[in-house]
Description:
This protein is an alpha/beta fold. The protein contains twelve helices and eight strands. An eight-stranded parallel beta barrel has the order 1-2-3-4-5-6-7-8, surrounded by five helices. Helix 2 links the parallel strand 2 and strand 3. Helix 1 packs parallel to helix 12 (245-257) and helix 7 (143-154) crosses helix 9. The radius of gyration is 17 Å and the shape is globular. Bound molecules: 2-phosphoglycolic acid.
Amino acid sequence: MDKRFRKTIIAGNWKMNQLASGVPAFVQELTEGLDAGAGEEVVLCVPFPLIPAMKAAAEGTVIRTGAQDVSAHEKGAYTGEVSAAMLADLGVEYCIIGHSERRAYHAESDELVNAKLKALLAAGIVPILCVGESLEQRDAGETLHVVSNQVKADFAGLSAEQARGVVIAYEPIWAIGTGRTATAEQAQEVCSFIREYLAEKVYDWDTSKAISVLYGGSMNAKNAAELLDQLDIDGGLIGGASLKPADFAVIVKAGNEDE
Ligand code: PGA
């Protein structure tokens, strides 16, 4: 499948790390490590309080600001929640939803993830939808079944046009933060399956080939090039290695070489 239909996206997920005060120095070091005119989208998904600092530091650079979660509700009595309109108002362009840490620690269901996805699209923010299987599910041979069920439920009610505005991140749970990366073949197999599933069971090939599918899970400066070289892997969602500007710059450049 021809990658020219899709954007390469290299997105960092800072999780609950870094401070607003450290953002300017981080961005400076990262941009110094990047080649001018990188062709792909470089995104940093930061904790909510760091968003204004990231927007300010990233101005005039290739870096786009992302968030890590959003409320499914538009507004109102939801103490502690942050709406899609609030994120859009701050200039947020991407937002992770359905990360396995939120599914596990906050019991987020596919139904909730679907509602969050719709809230983001309505606010003009690109959702980075995470799907992926646990180790038990992989060992039981259920990977493709689990992932297709998540995709089906998370995309429920979305038109083909809306679906084109979604980015998917395949993140096997056993590879997140463990240093145990999926092999390039394992990652390619599932990413290509997701594309085929969207094309044949949910939408059509024109729609499916416009959707970027990223890989996430212990991607780092050493293994990024091989993973990003795979036909159906259109970028990466990077946790630990996105906290180090020099390493993240290497990953961005690996994505760029693959264009
Ligand atoms: P990791 O995290 O790169 O540290 O494995 C990836 C993620 O959780 O998005």
